[in-house]
Amino acid sequence: MLKKLSAGVALATVLLTAQNQPPAGTPHQPPDPATMIAMRVAMLAAQLSLTDAQKTTATQIFTNANTASETVRTTLDTNRQSLNDAVKTNNTSSIDSLSQVIGTLSGQLTAINSKAEAAFYAILTPDQQSKYASSPGPGHGPGGGFGPAGLHRPLQ
Questions:
Q1: 95-121 burial by CB neighbour count: b if 16+ within 10 A, else e?
Q2: How many structural domains comprise the chain?
Q3: Average of pLDDT values for 65-88?
Q4: Is residue 38 part of a domain?
């Protein structure tokens, strides 16, 4: 039953996405963060039978994590571009220093996302925690991540 429900949610998402495609030749624009969070909470709600209060709390948790990670993501993008430029000019000292900075920023994103996962997990009932822990990670169905920065893995 849960697999059919999850498949139905995934199919509905695909159909809605297909209906809202830009005209041919227009670059694809990913959904804004609020839409991605709403989609994630909707999938989690279907998968875990979240209460309205849990949905509200989950939305706030994921919104706070997104807000906390905005500056880090922007800085990370800038540093990745700088690293790309350093590679093109064979600037090995910049490559070393930028790689270290990128590692630190990636660690900060991991911490932000992991704290959000922990806060979300804490609002679940034991039965919901069990279902959530056995769900697949990103790219494999419900329960996966914060979009590009998502790091959800099944909890053990």
A1: eeebeebbeebeebbeebbeebbebbe
A2: 1
A3: 96
A4: yes
